[in-house]
UniProtKB/TrEMBL annotation:
Similarity field: Belongs to the acetate uptake transporter (AceTr) (TC 2.A.96) family.
Alphabetically ordered keywords of this record: Membrane, Transmembrane, Transmembrane helix
Claim: Transmembrane helix is one of the keywords in the record: yes
A cellular component annotation (GO) from this entry: plasma membrane
Membrane topology reported for the UniProt record: Multi-pass membrane protein
Coarse class of the protein's main subcellular location: membrane
Protein name in UniProt: Protein alcS
Transmembrane parts of this sequence: 68-87, 93-115, 127-147, 167-188, 195-217, 229-248
Residues covered by region (Disordered): 1-20
Phylogenetic classification of the source organism: Eukaryota, Fungi, Dikarya, Ascomycota, Pezizomycotina
Any one Gene Ontology molecular-function term assigned to this protein's record: acetate transmembrane transporter activity
Subcellular location: Membrane
Biological source species: Cryomyces minteri
Length: 286
């Protein structure tokens, strides 16, 4: 049986060679696994983005930057979710994890986003640059040197100013519009996979809860605001678990694991505009 299988495979290769042109073209197609075109569902699983044309063979020369950015995001978002929910007495606005905010959430995501940008993955690079900047902002807000609350204190005390109703009400708008840009990402993620779509959907809810919490604090409703903070933390924990699953999928693909985990590919379920146009041209040609 094995000999017959090998013979059939060789015959298929010879027929493919005869039908598809020169020896060089044929060798280029079968040279290595890395040189084979990546199927659409595998591509969006690796890069969290629909495939776009990239100059040269950059994807063969460089590693996949997506896991790097995901690790940065997760090592900032996951502990922050636990802080927001107050697990095991955690609190203090996340001051103890300020460095992970800056180095993992900010810098590491920027490195991953830059790698995605080099490869021509506009959507995923936009994701990682945006949330990398978000975590840098979170970190800088906790660093007194930046004086983010100084304008809200008569004495210019940033810590005192950060606890005023005006500061809470103002910062809430920032969180609100982070939810808006995340909603835009969520709509576009319909072309990627179900897991990423759900991550962004829950993240929209999390930003809504946190912005509402800050407005409650601004009005002096500490109890209601605290409940919304916990709800936001629960949402953050939920999307973090889904993102951890995405990271595991990415790492398993990177080491060519014997089996793959499903992510609910949507790239073929929701065809792109260019594919629709191509099909129209083909049908018109017939």
């Amino acid at each position: 049986m094995s000999g017959s299988s090998e013979y059939d495979s060789s015959a298929d290769k010879i027929q493919d060679f005869q039908q598809n042109g020169s020896r060089e073209d044929y060798l280029r197609r079968i040279k290595t696994a890395e040189s084979v075109s990546i199927p659409k569902d595998v591509f969006e699983k690796l890069y969290l983005s629909p495939e776009q044309p990239a100059a040269g063979d950059l994807r063969k020369r460089f590693g996949n930057p997506t896991p790097i950015a995901l690790i940065g995001f997760l090592l900032a978002a996951s502990p922050n979710a636990c802080v927001l929910m107050g697990w095991r007495g955690a609190g203090g606005g996340g001051g103890a994890i300020l460095c992970p905010f800056v180095f993992f959430g900010g810098i590491l995501q920027f490195i991953g986003g830059f790698g995605e940008w080099i490869l021509g993955n506009t959507f995923s690079s936009s994701l990682f640059f945006t949330y990398g900047a978000f975590w840098l902002v979170q970190g800088c807000t906790l660093i007194p040197w930046f004086g983010v609350g100084a304008n809200y204190s008569p004495l210019g005390n940033t810590l005192e100013g950060s606890a005023t109703p005006e500061f809470y009400a103002t910062f809430a708008f920032y969180l609100l519009f982070m939810g808006v840009v995340t909603f835009c990402f969520m709509i576009c993620a319909i072309r990627t996979n179900i897991v990423l779509f759900m991550v962004l959907l829950i993240l929209v809810v999390a930003f809504g809860c946190l912005s509402g919490a800050y407005w409650q604090f601004a009005e002096g409703n500490v109890v209601e605001g605290g409940k919304l903070v916990v709800a936001g933390g629960a949402c953050a924990f939920a999307f973090s678990m889904l993102a951890w699953y995405l990271l595991l999928v990415q790492l398993m693909e990177a080491v060519d694991f014997p089996f793959t985990l499903p992510v609910g590919d949507l790239s073929t379920v929701v065809p792109g505009k260019s594919l629709r146009a191509l099909k129209k041209m083909q049908s018109a040609g017939q």
